[in-house]
Amino acid sequence: MDNSKKRHPSALEPLTLLLTVVTSVFGAIIGMQIITSLGITPSTSIIGALIAMLIARVPVALLSKYRSVHRQNLVQTAISSATFGAANSLLIPIGIPFMMGKQELILPMLIGAALAMLLDATLLYKLFDSKIFPAKGTWAPGVATAESIMAGDQGGKRAGLLGLGTLVGLIGSYFHISMSAFGVAFIGNIAALFMFGIGLMIRQYSLPWFHFDISKYYIAHGLMIGAGLVALVQVAVLILKKQKEQELKQQDVTDSSEPSNTVSTRATRRVLGYGFLLYLGIALVIAIVGGLISEMSVGMFIGFLLFAAFAAFVHELIVGIAAMHSGWFPAFAVSFITLLIGMLIGFPPVALALLAGFSAATGPAFADMGYDLKTGYILRGNGEDAEYELQGRRAQYITGMIAFGVSLLTVIITYPSYFANHLVPPIDTVYASTINAGATPDVAMQLFLWAIPGAILQLIGGSKRQLGILFATGLLILTPYACWAVLVGIAIRLIVLKVKGKEAEKTMSILAAGFIAGDALYSFFNSVFKLNK
Questions:
Q1: How far apart (Å, rounded) are the C-alpha atoms in residues 142 and 370?
Q2: 193 with 486: CB under 8 angstroms?
């Protein structure tokens, strides 16, 4: 069959559209329930893939088309987008003004968060397979979902390996082992994940080993600030360097040995520029609707707009980089850093509430869209047919936008009852209490001092390894024994590669997908049925 003539299934097929809406409502409710009860958002991609597989096996001719892995991919994109959209991008931001007793700010925050969520996903769609967010990046949860869908489609040895990995993942998760971290260690960048594992270890054991609570001294926050600023510079340098290389290659049209990304450096630069301007526009909308004009002087109002847009822009990049390399994204922690800096600048409490919510709304949809597009990229043949890849990518983007729209409607309808029963994401209590407590010069000094080693570590690792970002990410996450899962996983991977060679990588990637899938399934069922109290 001539691949160039293939047409990717449309996101707007009547039955596909119906499934998108239904699974999006389901995903949004799951996300809101679990974020308010446990403070986390589960990955529902595997659940969506399983739903599509089950639908395909219903003995009705109309449903047989869902044996297509590409239609199954659209279903998992819908439920995943709705879950993270409703919980992380919408409910968390509007919970901050609620916890501060600022009911009048809920609507302005919801408007701003919704716009930020949609822009977030759009920017990743435009940047996916660029030099800074390559399609060949790790994006581990996306790999896991793709392997699950392919195993269900192909069966045989692949299905057996995936089933074994999923079983091990379920058992390990029951015994409180972070099987997602273990799986990521099998497929991610080894240097970056090693620093991630060391960060996780220091975060968990700083108090029992060194009698020093690292979380109380803003060490991780300072490191992330330094690493994040250097990462921003590295992105700019990477774009300029790539542009220069492309200009040189244009002088020698015979050199076509190196495959190019589907998103050019020029397009990347344009997307980033427009993205910042749009974030600035959203910040203006939030500020005006939230009544900040009457709260601040003209100079401080302009400063707020510029800082909010810049913070959202950097937050998105940091979360995206961490998500691509480690499969984890420290969205809560990085938005908390934005809040701390805003407090040190001296913004009033109302502005801080809107700033924290705006920052929290950016990043999750960006990272989730990356995972979903990575799933599609693998299912569509790893970019072997560029036209088909772009068709599929667009179909996923349309599906994601519909799912985000459904999640917005779901939140609008249900949030009053959640708040009336005081069901709010736990992180919102932290944001609100921090704003009420205020900041001190000691906090500023801690952030500044620890930003220096963070910047140095990021410089040493370079843009490919992202050592500073990943180390700070590990320091910001407290997941018991995840450090051992990462470090042991890396050690096993190195031993297997030494003994078996490169041919073992595929087997390890399928097993890793199973570990991650098992962890995701266990997290979902545990949150619903309380399997392990």
A1: 8
A2: yes
